[in-house]
Every structure is written in C-alpha cells, then in structure tokens.
Amino acid sequence: MSFSSAHPNGTWLVDRRWKEELHKAAMLGGSPLRIICPFIKLGALDQLLRPHRGPVQVITRYNLDDFSAGVSDLSSLRRLLSIGAEVRGVRGLHAKVYLFGDRRAVVTSVNLTGSGLTGNHEFGVVSEAAPVLQACTDYFDALWAGCGPNLAPAQVTDWEVQVTAHRATGAPGFVGSELGDFGAEIRMVPPVAPITLADQEGPPAFVKFLGQATNRAPLDHAILDELKSSGCHWALGYPADRRPRNVQDGSEMFMGRLTYDPTDIVIFGRATGMRHVDGRDDATDAEFADRDWKAIWPLYVRVHHAEFVAGTLRNGVSLNRLMDTLGQDAFASTQRNAAAGRGNVYPRASYRRQPSVRLSDQGHAWLNARFHEALRLHGRVSNEDLAKLDWPERPSPPSRL
Q1: pTM summary value
Q2: Helix ranges (DSSP H) in 90-152
Q3: Phi, psi angles (nearest 5°) of residue 259
Q4: Contact between 301 and 276 (Cβ < 8 Å)
Q5: pLDDT single digits (tens) 175-229
Q6: For residue 293, what is the DSSP state?
Q7: Exposed/middle/buried for 150, CB within 10 Å: 0-12, 13-18, 19+?
Q8: Helix (H) / strand (E) containing 325
C-alpha cells in the first residue's frame, strides 16, 4: 500500500511511483526547477524536464568514477547545459531534493535514474507547506553558494575523453582509479532550523458546495463540464446575503458537487483561496450574462492554482465517507461543540443550507490524503483543457470612498 499521510499544511509521505510523483510536481509549473541529486541518468532527466518551462539549477556529483561505471551520465550534464541550465558539483553529495519553484518540494531517497524512479524501494516526503519549501530553498542556496563556478561545456568534453580512455583499458574495478573527483569540497552548510508542522496553525480549509438539492448531478457527470458551467477554476460563488468573511488568503478550498444515486457531495477539485474584497469580488453584469445563476450567487471567493481530478465525478472523494470515518471530528464546528459539550455534533446537520463548511485539522488531513490519491489514480484535468476555459480579466481594484 502506498503511503499518502497528508498533513493539513500539505505534506505527505510517498513510498512508490516516484516517476509519476515527480511528473505531477513538474506539471504544476513551479519555476525555477532546482535539483540536488548525486546520480543523474539521461532518460530519467528528460522525463523530468519534458513538462518544465523555465530556469533549471542542478547540484550533483563530479566523480568521474561514477560516470565511468555508468551510475551517472555525462550526457545528462551535456543535456542540461544545452537548455541553459546552471550545474555545479559537490564532493560526497548524498542528498536528493527536488524543488519546483514555490509550489512543491520533494525530499527523497530517489536518484534521477530509471531504477530510482521505478524499481528501487524508495521513500520520501512531498510538501507544499511554506516552511518546508523555505527550508529546502535555504539548504539549496547554502549548498549552491559553496560549490561554484557553473559547469562549462569544455569541461564535459574533457571528462568524456578521460572516461572513454579509461573504459578502453577495461576499467578494472579492482584497480584504484585516478580519474578524480572534480566536485567542490564543502565542509559545512548552515543548519536547517527545525520545523514542527503540527505546531503551526495555517489558514482554515473549507469544502465549498456546488449545486443545490434540486439540481444534483449524476456520478457520470464530466468534471470538465462542471468547470465550464460553474467557473470554479477561478471563483466560487456565495449568496448575496452571505459575504464570505471567514476565508483567508491561503485557505485551501475543496470543491464539492452535490450528487444523486447515491446522495452525496463529491470532492473533485482544490485550490488556494483569497479573502473576499468588497467590490472586486462582486459579479459584474457581463458575468451575470455568462452564468445566470450568479444572480443569486453573486459574491466571490477567488481561487488560484486550482487542480481537478480528471474524468467524471465518480473519480472524486466522497464527503459521506469523510463524515462516516471521522464523525464529529470531520468539521471544525462539530469538533468544537463536542469539546464544549453542547451544540450540534452531527456533521450532516452542520452544513445544511450552508454554502460551505470549514474542515477540522483531522478532516483537512484526511481529505488531502484521499484527494492526492484520487489524483494519483485518475490524473488531473490537463493544462491544455484548463487553458480552453473562460478566465476573467484582471479585476479592478476596489473603490476607496
């Protein structure tokens, strides 16, 4: 069974399918791509670079014995230089860190090789938590500063000549090699400050409901069709008499569609929310014309960096299952009432006639893990399909009277 132990701050453990894991991270579009990896093979490198657009920085090993033995490829260094990447080398490098801009960090035992991505028993952490991203960035920067200058094409050519000549002698493994290690000798980098994610209270997380009891969708409803009709790839609608003041910048917003057969709410997307700003986040006349339902749901929580499970609602995550599993600990309100010994503690009664519900920390962690698993099993709505959807013009700043 694959680990996917998500934390409310967006951190989970992974023990397999690393090829898919890195590909999904690369598809997020985070830039620059920063890699710390001792051994890099050309095929695995090309798989990682294929979806990436933007700068690339790589810290690796320059031990020519590694290249002679074939555990790392000089051709991968040449490939990096051909796309304008900056490459530096460190002696004794063992860390493996993959940083996708400020979107996602992967800290793992996986080298960028075919066996590492698909064959070996590997384990690591994937995180979108700001403290983890910052710590990984600080570590990369400290290592980078100590191991210049950047690799030049002429140096790769010289190494290729040396390695080829060594192999032509039979390259006996029992004879000490004189090929050498050209990586920088770095004694110490500043220590990374300890991070205790459980002690950090992030912005609240919500499930926003789409649809009403009178227009539930079937499970074979295409998620892409839902995006076209709801516009939830950039904004979530709230009723005119309920300005959504509880959403903060950075709140995680899960999109849930009311369904029938069975009666449920299926989570099919998630995004980062923005706090509601009067004026800026009120639907315009043009937006009313595009979607007439906004006449009764004219207030927005704008979202960004949205991602959606591919296929139909059947591929999403059941809110019924969340409530059945966690009970009163599913939502913040029922958990709070249970602790106080008064008020409603039944999750199904807590969100009736509400446009959204706030998750507890346990509910957020549970849902994050299952949503991540749904993405792994079914894939994401592609960037190409998302690009075909309607996207708003840059909103005018709110008036100051």
Answers
A1: 0.55
A2: 114-118, 130-145
A3: -130, 165
A4: yes
A5: 555 788 999 998 777 777 666 655 455 688 999 999 988 999 999 999 999 999 9
A6: G
A7: middle
A8: helix 319-326
